[in-house]
Amino acid sequence: MKPAYLVGTVILAAVIGVSSYQLGIRNQSKPVVTKVATVLDPPRLMAESQLIKHDGTEFSNATMRDKWTLMFFGFTYCPDICPTTMQSLVSSINKIEQAGIENAQVVFVSVDPKRDTPERLTEYLSHFDKNFIGVTGQLNDIEEFSRSIGVVFAHNRPDETGYYAVDHSAVILIINEDAEMRGLFSAPHDWEDIADDLISIHG
Questions:
Q1: Pairing relation of β-strands 68-74 and 153-155?
Q2: Strand 58-59's sheet: what is its strand order?
Q3: Whole-angstrom Cα distance, residue 203 to residue 200?
Q4: Is the bond into 43 cis (omega within 30 degrees of 0)?
Q5: Domain ranges within the chain, ordered by starting residue
Q6: Strands 166-168 and 181-185
Q7: Distance between CA atoms of 22 and 70, rounded to whole angstroms?
Q8: Strand 68-74 and strand 104-110: pairing?
Q9: Which H helix or E strand runs over 124?
């Protein structure tokens, strides 16, 4: 896998540089002081998604409304970045909930829908937190949704055994209660910084 931090840097620049015409804006909110998070002010609108959750039900922007969402794109066969990031999110969400924020959630969006079936996602998430939401769907739908928020990924050519990796970023997106992109965390991640910054942004 190519260094995700480099990909993340490209994505970070792309997200911040996307014009308001492309993503839409609303009135600016009160400035927030954070440790490591890049806060988008105003928040950016996202394209409507047509995906499915690991339990087989529909995943749409409505799934994220009235919630604060930490969203990470990855795949279950990822050997390093994904499990490390997911474990960080377990610790982060625990601290966030202990701070009294009851409407926070973690969404793991698969960039490998061919292998990451709902059943596979269910099994994968059981190793982290049963309340985490896994998302999959048709590849073109995932690509369309990811592009709308500046996330890119690329499938590598399979090796002689048929295994293939997917180059992707370790960026964690912050989605607010209006299902808008409020900010992001670039790798490397510190779970306490993630928790503290989301608590600050939540207000």
A1: unpaired
A2: 38-44, 181-185, 172-175, 68-74, 104-110, 133-136, 51-53, 58-59
A3: 5
A4: no
A5: 4-202
A6: unpaired
A7: 22
A8: parallel
A9: helix 118-125
For the cut 70, the answer to whether the pLDDT of residue 15 exceeds it is: no
The CATH T-level fold of domain 4-202 is Glutaredoxin (3.40.30)
Here the tokens at position 155 are 């499938």
Distance from C-alpha of 57 to C-alpha of 77, rounded to nearest angstrom: 23
Closest to 106 (Cα-Cα) out of 68, 157, 138, 62:
68
Residue 173 amino acid letter: L
How distant is the alpha carbon of residue 124 from its chain centre?
16
- Tell me the per-residue pLDDT of 64-111, one tens digit each, with 9 for 90 and over: 999 999 999 999 999 999 999 999 999 999 999 999 999 999 999 999
- 87's enclosing H/E stretch is helix 81-98
Specify the 3-state DSSP secondary structure of 39: strand
C-alpha pair distances (Å), 179 with each of 31, 40, 66, 163, 168: 19, 13, 8, 35, 23
pLDDT value, residue 29:
52
Buried b (16+ CB within 10 A) or exposed e, 65-81: eebbbbbbbbbbbbeeb
Q: What is the pLDDT of residues 154-168, one digit of tens each?
A: 999 999 999 999 999
Helix (H) or strand (E) holding 134: strand 133-136
| Residue bearing the bigger pLDDT, 182 or 14 | 182
